[in-house]
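Bumping with the actual sequence this time:
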Amino acid sequence: MTAMSNKWDESFDLVVVGSGGGSMCAALVAKQLGKSALIVEKLDKVGGSTGFSGGVWWVPNNPVMKRAGVADSPERAREYLDAAVTYDGPGTSPARRDAFIRTGPMMIDFLERQGMQFVYADGWSDYYDELPGGEPRGRSLLANLFDTRELGDWERRLSRYKGFSLPAWMHEMPTLLLVKRTWAGKKVALGLAWRILKGKLTGARLAGAGAAIQGRMLQMALREKLPIWPEAPLSQLVVEDGRVTGVVVRRNGRDVRVQARDGVLLNVGGFSRNARMRKAYQPQPSSANWTNANPGDTGEVIEMAMALGAATDCMNEAWWVVTSLGPDGKPPRPGGYADDGTPLPFMHHLDLSLPYSIMVDQLGERFCDEAGAYMEIGQRMYERELKTGRAVPSWVIMDSRQRAYYPWGTAQPGQVPKEWLDSGYMIKAGSIEELAARTGIDRAGLQRTLERFNGFCATGVDKDFGRGSRAFDRCHGDPTVKPNPNLGAIEKPPFYAVRMYPGDVGTAGGLVTDEHARVLRSDGSAIDGLYATGNCTASVVGRCYPGAGASIGASFTFGYIAAHHALGATPQ
């Protein structure tokens, strides 16, 4: 990793490796400070994991929520973080928590002045709103819908999820799922239909979710004439006299040495798609086939930093979102693949929150709040697997009303694709006894669980896991179901079952950084000239997901912090 030559092909004040949200934020900071910045990206698409995501920032005490009349403060935010983030690790240090809370609102204000159009996700509650400092109206922000035509020739370069895309805001989705159940759902559906029709009439290509964030971030970066090099993978971190002074990237078939006078910022994602690293660090069983992470999530840059002595933490953690797969371990057809054949494992959070379904292990026993925080559901599945060896896969059990009233994966209410039944992805039975026999679930255990769960549905109180007790659970439930919008008895045949696995949208551990986003060694000293943010770092929220967009909010915030520190400025 150490280079002896001082010859450079290009020279910038700040070099950013990777093009996720924190990257363009940092480069925009550099431009405002009168400094030069370069973004290098190994893929042909720009936007990283943020472009693939649901497109949400979680930033406490932000100015957008305050304009909506929601009171917050640094003290209240810190109270919530301290209550929710119980993991005590180097990434969750008091100094990093304080830096995140203090600087996040500045970052939002900065992006707004740069042209970002924020939407407050009102009602998308903090995930543990019952804890001290929790906010039931939420601290999450979305980007306004973005017409990707505005990117011109760069439109084809925008990183985005390959699945079906809707011109909708993510906080509309829980209501949209209730289109057959509520007037509110029908109203959201009509609004969506109008946007789609208007787009067809005008030629607009409106994007929501992560593509809306990164589309506008890319537009802002291009407006400021920030150099962005796609298809330029990092091959070396250049170190001189103990300091990271630049990078070598492979561009247009040759090695290009780029000086970074003030620092190198890594924002390269995690290692969800690296089978070797998953086996070395992640809980087992594990598979890169279960992930919906960005294709660039391959981990080699994390290993480059480790070779320089960088410390790591939480390498066994991920942003878990459980997925359902067929008996062959693959997503089902139709629905589970993009037009080009790319696998797109279903991400079950919203549909798993709705009534008339439960998740059990192979013993027929529940182990989590199915409507709760998705990261925690994955953790509980692995904890159960470690205890019993019978939780990966687990099973979701549904009755006929779940299929009649709500979507599942890409299937709309009332749909049960014949191909799903023929392939064994979804198993159908006329009785619970038959379902247990066909799935291999312990029959007596499943019957005991259903009897107990159905009793909870009658009283509205889940005495085992508190399903429906939080504002977060309830905002993803069906308000027409009483007395608890998340609880519906499993009693009306036919019954259905699908296998569930601990999927993810990215790993959640990596390089240890300080409150300035500097990469640290195991002795706590900083690697001079090297900064990091995003999923390649040990997160400031540790092993907890406190609210929608916590990973993206932290990535942007510490990218903002890193640029200021590297360039000798104070965030304000």
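The tokens above came from a reply further down the thread. The first helix runs from residue 21 to 32.
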